[in-house]
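Case study 2.
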Amino acid sequence: MRHSRAMVIAALCVALISGGTACPLGGYNPFIIPAFFVSVIDNPYFPLVPGTTFFFEADTPDGFEEVETIVTHDTKKILGVTCVVVHDIARLDGEIIEDTLDWYAQDCHGNVWYFGEYSETFQNGIVTGTEGSWEAGVDGAKPGIVMKANPKVGETYRQEYYAGVAEDMADVLSLNRLVIVQFGKFSDCLKTRDYSPLDTTLNEFKYYAPGVGQVLTKEGEGVRVELVNVTVE
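Prediction:
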């Protein structure tokens, strides 16, 4: 039987890319083959269209927090894969506290991979550190999947892996949550629990609306980080 090139590529995507993340709690060695990545990120739970900006707000014990998540037109090549650069800016009571560049790419199976970040923290307008920064392929760091192509309740997966620095993981808890935030009302939302073995205090519940992306994060002490607006250039 003859197989089309598309069929062969699809089969290799499943066997190599998905297979490389099959054991997130044991040995972790994801296969990254640049030819099996695509130029857009259109996963319905995690769409990243260049020129889009997401605005989030939260009342926290430390003050009023605002976060801008800007999907830039910039790219960065990591391990041979062209990644979309996403710029996050966090402010507390109007003062910048963190400025981060995140790098994402989507494989041909629809999984969105996280290839690292460069993050600066600020105090009184001065950079105080870059803790948590990492890049796949540098010093043993490895990419993880930030959003599955077809998430299933009960799944656990790595979102990032840089031993001792960045080891966030996620559990899929639900696919049918109703979420109401300032930006709107959304049904059939994906709910995950994000956590890290490096920080036992990290326990976040995130909600993703189909066609929109992340709309809500619930953090400790009842903090709700809500999507309040989305703009497109």
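Residues 14-26 have pLDDT under 50 and may be disordered.
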